[in-house]
Amino acid sequence: MSIAILLEMPVSMDPDKEAIVDGDLRLTLGQVDALVNRAAARITESGAQCVAYVGTGGAAMPVLLFASARAGVPFAPLNYRLTTDALVELIERLPGAVVVADADYAAVAAAAGVPVLDSADFLDVGAASGAEAPAGDVDPDALAVVLFTSGTTSKPKAVEITHANLTSYVMGTVDFASADPADAALICVPPYHIAGVSAALSNLYAGRRAIYLQRFDPAAWLRLVHDEGVTNATVVPTMLDRIIAAYEKDPVELPTLRNLAYGGSKVPQPLVRRTLDLLGDVGLVNAYGLTETSSTIAVLGPDDHREAYGSDDPAIARRLGSVGRAVPGIELQIRDADGTVLGADETGELFIRGPQVSGKYTGIGSVLDAEGWFPTKDIASIDADGYLFIGGRSDDTIIRGGENIAPAEVEDALVEHPQIREVVAIGVADPEWGQAIVAVVVREDGVTEADLDADAVREFARTKLRGSRTPDHVVFRDELPSTATGKILRRVLVDELTPATAE
Length: 503
What we know:
This protein is α/β, with parallel strands linked by helices. Among the domains are: about 330-395, Luciferase, Domain 3 (Luciferase, domain 3, Roll), CATH 2.30.38; about 395-495, ANL, C-terminal domain (GMP Synthetase, Chain A, domain 3). The chain has 15 helices and 26 strands. The chain has a nine-stranded mixed sheet with strand order 2-1-10-9-11-12-13-14-15, with helices on both faces. It has a four-stranded parallel sheet with strand order 4-3-5-6, sandwiched between helices. A four-stranded antiparallel sheet has the order 16-17-20-21. Strand 9 (about 185), helix 7 and strand 10 (about 210) form a beta-alpha-beta unit. Helix 8 (about 220-225) crosses helix 9 (about 235-250). The protein is globular and about 70 Å long. The protein starts with a helix and ends in a 7-residue tail after the last helix.
């Protein structure tokens, strides 16, 4: 089964239903289908073995995604924020690629020396009238999408995701045509992120209008939610922080917004609580997943959020810091270093199994074990009720004096200080302890060194953490280095602070 069926099914039901809004461009399902057919024919005629896309997304994202599927070639959206050299390197790793680029990135893409097509040409509704898709079946196990990892600690890996992986995810988590007629989803995650791919697939399949905001701005986001009657939205943590800050300064009525999902990286609990206080009628959803798992594998839903926030039971209140429970079709295991499966509340590496899990990389092959389990390299635990808690990447574990310390434990404690906005805990080389704990802190707006210095942070830490887990050093920054999806670039901080020059 090809992912193209996720478009074909809603088109067959109501081709005149508005499906995509991208600025002034408004497309019905029938128009999207025609654009996809024309684009698929052009891809086939080009002889391309892969379609690489360099641009900010919008309507071009679902059109090219479905067109590549109908043409029987994989789709590879690339990070348009990369340097020319970095983009060229990725394109060269895609044999037989044709590049489709937004006008602003055409010159960058052309540097790879491969054919470059203008993405705007694929959105010409008039030219697409009567277009027919290429004939031919697509193997469900064939590649549908290739996504490159961020490569923050090593060379980016090319994750291979099949049609079967993606259709299993969408059909396993979304009921076909289940959305109300007025439902609309606001999509502002970048196209090269797995969330951008899953949003393009799942919203059309559910029958939900997809509203695209290509370049994120919190004020524009709030206006679109209000003006377009948005009911569902997905953001990354940095976006959520900026949205809440903008809302606090200039509240906007959001009567239609029912669900606001966040994910991509860890969200500080104070921000979650602030959001619940300000947007009490909006259901918050914490969605956890990886590129290798075709998007979400665990969800903390609105009822979970409200129950945890309002509970006096420590075990239930603690769930606010979890990523929820596994979605249908997904199995979870926590294993120790020897591969032993651990019990409730025991900490180890998270393993995942299910039909949506790829676990395969170009040039490397599958990393699934003999029983189909994928090693995430995330340190985690699962409580007795199945709630999953992520402690960070195994590579980020701080080993101080022979003791393994999860950065999340330090970060979760310090971020509760009312004058701290963000904090990252890292380990740097230390001759005495092996590694020293460095807390990199961003103060809240308006808070000065006189209000909060390194000694005050350490003093606060001692009230929350064991002595061995109290930061050895504290460094202040105006902001933390991060990717566009809010993932903190820890390696940048480690390199910068080795040897530590902290206070």
